[in-house]
Design goal:
By secondary structure, the protein is mainly beta. It contains no helices and eleven strands. The radius of gyration is 14 Å and the shape is globular.
Length: 131
């Protein structure tokens, strides 16, 4: 069993930046697909980004249309922490952000917006964009 934990949420003004972090029981996450999802009040959970280091499948990082150009996901050199750098934040980015891990090594980011693809989820961290 993998314990996934997010951190870094908070209150930020429109146009500001925030970086979220995700770790999983200290496990080496290299080669696994790690996604960020978000869920705003009254809305469905949506995929924001996915990172998978396996170059054999589906590229390394993918982003939703709303995140592309403003958000960037990366993994640290120790492969133990995945980040979501969020820039130029908008009020509509307000949501609980979740980190999710696909248990299948090398699976890549195909269909990353599909909730069922991911086996382990964190509890979420609140991001509020407001002046």
């Amino acid at each position: 069993q993998l314990h996934v934990a997010e951190s870094g949420g908070g209150l930020v003004q429109p146009g500001g930046s925030l970086t979220l972090s995700c770790s999983a029981s200290g496990r080496n996450l290299g080669g696994y697909a790690i996604a960020w999802f978000r869920q705003a009040p009254g809305k469905e959970r949506e995929g924001v980004s996915c990172l998978a280091e396996s170059v054999l499948k589906d590229g390394r990082t993918v982003y939703s249309e709303s995140a592309a150009g403003r958000f960037a996901t990366s993994i640290d050199n120790a492969k133990s922490t995945v980040y979501l750098q969020m820039n130029t934040l908008k009020p509509e980015d307000t949501a609980v952000y979740y980190c999710a891990v696909d248990a299948i090594f090398g699976a890549g980011c195909a269909e990353y917006t599909t909730y069922d693809k991911f086996d382990y989820w964190g509890q979420g961290t609140q991001v509020t964009v407001s002046s």
